[in-house]
């Protein structure tokens, strides 16, 4: 359980520098007159923010010995729920279901957690900060997705 929670915390922390860079990027673009990133509920905002958060997370997963497949799966687990929320909002359901108004971040974390529970064998064994080179060697070229 400790490995699982530690990995989840690592993924959340790894996304934070990407979020900070995105906010600086957004600030610079809006000052130049590009206003598409002003509305936090817009598809453009969510797509750019997701890309900026996904990149450092996948890089950190690779450093820790996860394969490309793991990174792609985690990215999908992170972005698909947000796309679903935006789709539901686009259908006008935000008026009927008020929780949709600001639920994209919660959906992102829930999607990542759901993927980790589905692939719990990957995230509950041998994923220790102290032992991470061993985890990388163990996953080596024989692991799927490397």
What does this structure look like?
The protein is mainly α. It has one domain (about 1-135). Helices cover about 70% and strands about 0% of the residues. The chain contains six helices and no strands. The chain has helices at about 1-30, 45-65, 70-90, 105-120, 120-125, 130-140. Helix 1 packs across helix 2 and helix 3 (about 70-90) runs antiparallel to helix 4 (about 105-120). The radius of gyration is 17 Å and the shape is globular. Mean pLDDT is about 80; it is low at about 140-145.
Number of helices: 6
Kindly, what is the distance between the CA atoms of the first and last residues, rounded to a whole number of angstroms? 25 Å
Q: Tell me the number of strands.
A: 0
User: Number of folding domains?
Assistant: 1
Elements, N to C (H/E): HHHHHH
Average pLDDT figure: 80
Question: For the CA atoms, what is the radius of gyration?
Answer: 17 Å
Beta-strand residue fraction: under 5%
Q: What structural category do the secondary elements indicate?
A: mainly alpha
Broad shape: globular
Helix content class: 55-70%
- Give start-end ranges of low-pLDDT stretches: 141-146
Biggest β-sheet strands, sense, barrel: none
